[in-house]
Automatic annotation (TrEMBL):
<dbReference type="InterPro" id="IPR058914">
    <property type="entry name" value="LIPB1/2_CC"/>
</dbReference>
<feature type="domain" description="Liprin-beta-1/2 coiled-coil">
    <location>
        <begin position="39"/>
        <end position="101"/>
    </location>
</feature>
<dbReference type="Pfam" id="PF26022">
    <property type="entry name" value="CC_Liprin_beta"/>
</dbReference>
<dbReference type="GO" id="GO:0048786">
    <property type="term" value="C:presynaptic active zone"/>
</dbReference>
<feature type="compositionally biased region" description="Basic and acidic residues">
    <location>
        <begin position="36"/>
        <end position="47"/>
    </location>
</feature>
<feature type="region of interest" description="Disordered">
    <location>
        <begin position="25"/>
        <end position="47"/>
    </location>
</feature>
<keyword id="KW-0677">Repeat</keyword>
<dbReference type="InterPro" id="IPR029515">
    <property type="entry name" value="Liprin"/>
</dbReference>
<protein>
    <recommendedName>
        <fullName>Liprin-beta-1/2 coiled-coil domain-containing protein</fullName>
    </recommendedName>
</protein>
<dbReference type="GO" id="GO:0007528">
    <property type="term" value="P:neuromuscular junction development"/>
</dbReference>
């Protein structure tokens, strides 16, 4: 919504600037080609703006998709990290159990 509002504000700004640079009503007929070229420049600028807006929209969608993929990958990485930690803990526990079993038992005679 903000992007649309700022685009509308930009449209109004461009129109005001171009119309302020146009000659007044009495001089328009005398400088018709200047008026026509200014209107053509305005149309071209608006067309370029629309094209850029579309391009920005496509890029924004791509960024959103890539951001979502990054979040998914980070979540997956965190899950795998937790599994590695748990596996290491289990192996360490297993090693300790094995070491205790291999340790010669001491028999104490009284």
């Amino acid at each position: 919504m903000d992007r649309r509002k700022s685009a509308a504000d930009y449209d109004d700004f461009v129109r005001r600037v171009y119309y302020q640079t146009l000659p007044g009503p009495r001089r328009r007929s005398r400088y018709g080609s200047l008026h026509d070229s200014a209107e053509e420049r305005l149309r071209k600028t608006e067309s370029e703006k629309d094209s850029l807006s579309l391009h920005v929209s496509v890029l924004t969608d791509q960024i959103d998709a890539q951001s979502e993929k990054i979040r998914d990958l980070e979540y997956s990485l965190a899950e795998r990290h937790d599994k590695v930690i748990n596996t290491e803990d289990m192996l360490q526990s297993e090693d300790m159990s094995t070491a205790l079993l291999k340790k010669p038992t001491e028999i104490h005679y009284l």
